Amino acid sequence: MTRIEAFMLAIVFTALPLFGEEFFIEEYNYSVYVPEGWDTFDRTSLSELSFISDDQTVIFQTSVYDGADFSSSLEMYEALTVDFRGESDGERFRYNGDDAFLADITFSQGDGELRGWFLFLNREDRDYYLLSFCGADYYEEKLPFILSVLDTFRIESDEALNKPGAVSQFYYPFPGKSDVMAQMVLNGNIVSFQTDLREFDSSQAVIEREAQLMKYYQDLGDKPLFEEAWKRYYKIIFRDNYSRFDSLGQTLRSTLDRYSDREKAVILLNWIQNFKYISSGTFSDLLSPIHTVSNEEGDCDARGLSYSIMLRHLDIDSILLVSWQYKHSISAVNVSGDGARYPLGDESYLVGETTEVVDLGMIPQSMAEGEKWIPVVFTED
To answer: Domain boundary at 117, 138, 171, which?
Structure first.
């Protein structure tokens, strides 16, 4: 029996239903953020976990090995896929400084053909092996899901927090070259930060991929499931872009150091309210946040995400509020002051409209029904 056949037989154990949940496996110090409706299968050890998509077409598995088991990611690829590897195309790269290998593999099982992406990560402490695949007939349709779940894998550490995922870093190395200087007028002062035009494309690729998942859940017609998928969409974009804002964040901290949190939130809101209103014109119709701040243009979603990322760099808590009824999104900031607030848990967030020049805390009466807003929370638990 081959390794893949053994795996396929193992997944008939008890399934545990999920609802778009991020799993932190403390014993092996990593997390994955599976799409909505996926199930996890009960396994004998946390060193191997398996998930299956809501429509039973995509399988995702994580395996952990001792760091001494393999000398490189290439050795992992060759050893762990030798029993079933058919047509294959792979390449070595660096993921957050670690040795990694990503491969697109087509293989056979019984009378069927399967295809998927395999990630091998070689470290001194542990080695990680991730595979996500489906029937070859479904591959083109399910490729966004295959790549999305792989891209959410991360080893938990302060250094890896909110950095682009492995698939994104395979697409374009991170950090980029930061060889372009962008300038902006902030609170009457000309300030600058470094950016990388190629990171715009890398981040946009993530957005377009995740928009394909959103379309799938929208077409299902399950409102609660779609709303959870919507939240995941924005959270993944936030995570992919956060560290791309490092240079801007450093500029903001030094420029706004003397101001209170509320004053910082107002200054940034006033800046972003004057951006040119534009969307990407792509399938997602959403510009990446790093493009948005570098070019001072974007729609409500792009501006709201950018605003939350900048506030996080200033250690200010904020959320994004989205509404399919209002076809709009606004920001909300956990700072003092009068105005309309959105209560969430023990906190109360002052709303911020990013596409109209209005004061922090102001919202049109026609959009003031709190139950029509879906909160997207970016803080780590």
So the answer is: 171
